[in-house]
Amino acid sequence: MSTERWSIEIYKEYLKFSAAHFLIFPDGSAERLHGHNYQVTAAIEARLSRHGLVIDFKQIKPIVRAIVDGLDEHWLVPGEHPELRVTRRDDGITEVRYRDAYYAAPSDDVIVLPINNSSAENFATWIGREMLSALGRQFPDLDVREARITVEETAGQRGVWHLTGD
Asked: According to the model, what pLDDT value does residue 58 have?
């Protein structure tokens, strides 16, 4: 038996952010601090409203844009990595230590995310969860069945978060 499903997908050039990060590999080695111009896409599957919409595009675009704009031009640090240490000093400097590496930056430039590594997959997960939280607050009647976020760090290379209603 066939089942009908509806979704919307959003890809806009302005759904992007530029950020610095370094990835920590399973063997404990780490990349050098560097940056990417990340591109974000979003998709939501939900029951159609009585007006024939999953959700109006103009209602979801500002939500996703606000999330990515909040990350723009920051250094994104994984706050849940077991070996990485972050200290916010009283003088407005944030120190980040990983093994023998030491970094210091103005605290306003650093965002510590509740993730264990600064991968595109984790960024997609964090953005997706933030998006769902905002949708739930603003549109409590929206019955999201599935959601998908991609974070492309370079052309053809992206991390994907996909929430399914299994």
From this structure: 94
Question: Which strand (E) or helix (H) includes residue 127?
Answer: helix 120-138
Q: Taking a C-beta distance cutoff of 8 angstroms, is the pair 159, 153 a contact?
A: yes
For the segment 32-60, what is each residue's pLDDT rounded down to a tens digit? 999 999 999 999 999 998 889 999 999 99
The answer to whether 48 and 8 have CB atoms below 8 angstroms apart is no
Burial 123-153 (b: 16+ CB within 10 A, else e): bbbbbbbbbbebbeeebeebebeebbbbbbb
pTM of the model: 0.95
Q: What is the dihedral angle through the alpha carbons of 17, 67, 142, 115, rounded to the nearest 10 degrees?
A: 90
Tell me the pLDDT tens digit for each residue of 64-74. 999 999 999 99
Please tell me the total number of residues recorded for the chain in this structure: 166
**Between β-strands 110-113 and 157-163, what pairing exists: parallel, antiparallel or unpaired?**
unpaired
Largest CA distance in the chain: 64
Q: What would you report as the CA-atom Rg of the chain, rounded to the nearest whole angstrom?
A: 18
